[in-house]
Amino acid sequence: MSYKVFIDGEAGTTGLQIRDRLTTRSDITLVQVDPALRKDAGARAEAFAEADVAILCLPDDAARESVALANGGTRFIDASTAHRVADGWVFGFPEMTRSQRADIAAAQYVSNPGCWSTCAIALIRPLVGAGLIEPGSAPAISGVSGYTGGGKSMIAEYGGGSIDGSFLYATTQAHKHLPEIVKHGLLSLPPVFVPSVGQYAQGMAVAIHLPNLGTDGMAAAETALRTAYDGELFVAVVPAELHAPRVMPQRLNGTNRLELSVHGNPETGAAVLVAVLDNLGKGASGAAVQNLNIMLGADDAAGLDDGLRAAAE
């Protein structure tokens, strides 16, 4: 059976990657709008009506407008920040809970997680559940992403030479991913979050800093993570030694995979939890395609990481 999919905003970074992942699939027919009419409400409404699933790769306000344009029968995957903590929307991180896939499969509205939040939630939520992180402890988060995480404007800045080097940002603690990290990380207070952008295109590494976890706590943390993601195809808990002596944020580029690891100093009890993914893969377009697969009843890995399913089996 062939399903019709409309990518609203397919000219953007995430939209282009989703389109590339879907164009060769025999089970997907892409619904497209004449480029001259891509901002025309009537043309887009017709596309929504024709599509089984619409994937929104738009700024927040435009994503809300797109949902309002639909006639009510279209299913949505929203890659923007607009609906990640909204009522009636299922959070599209399939590995987050054992029931998440079933919730996504049955949903009309699915919000694609952010790249930073995917990493943070993947690490924090199992440890909160295991009692190793207190919900009100406001853990510290840092990390680095490739500049493609900033979208077309930042890509243009780096490509045009107006930015040279790396930088920290969001130091005012108002990063747009914080609400979803709080909600889906089971926290009662926002973490202290200082992200950075590196002078490279894509790839992400995120660290959760836990100064008093201790040796036993480190072992318990790794156990909690392994228990949470046991049997998952795209999320793996790996030994800290795999990243020695350096954590390379580009390690998983071109994949839909997420790797988690526990690092620390047994003498001081200080620990660091690390997540690595491709900010354009499991952090964006890959996650959207995985959610689409689940909503359509296809294999999770369809169009993602050729051969991964067979290798795992």
Describe the structure in your own words.
The structure is a single chain. This protein is of the alpha/beta class and 313 residues long. The chain folds into two domains: 3-112 and 282-312, NAD(P)-binding Rossmann-like Domain (Rossmann fold, 3-Layer(aba) Sandwich); 115-279, Dihydrodipicolinate Reductase, domain 2. It is 34% helix and 20% strand. The protein has ten helices and 13 strands. A seven-stranded mixed β-sheet has the order 8-9-7-10-13-12-11. Helix 3 (60-69) links the parallel strand 3 and strand 4.
Q: Could you provide a short overview of the structure?
A:
With 313 residues, the chain is α/β, with parallel strands linked by helices. It has helices at residues 13-22, 41-50, 60-69, 100-106, 115-129, 151-160, 178-184, 214-229, 281-296, 308-312, and strands spanning 3-8, 28-31, 53-56, 75-78, 90-91, 109-111, 140-145, 167-168, 192-197, 204-210, 235-237, 258-265, 270-277.
Helix content: 25-40%
Q: What are the secondary-structure elements, in order, as H or E?
A: EHEHEHEEHEHEHEHEEHEEEHH
Overall SS class? alpha/beta
The CATH architecture term of the largest domain is: 2-Layer Sandwich
Q: State mean pLDDT (0 to 100 scale).
A: 94
Spatial ordering of strands, largest sheet: 8-9-7-10-13-12-11
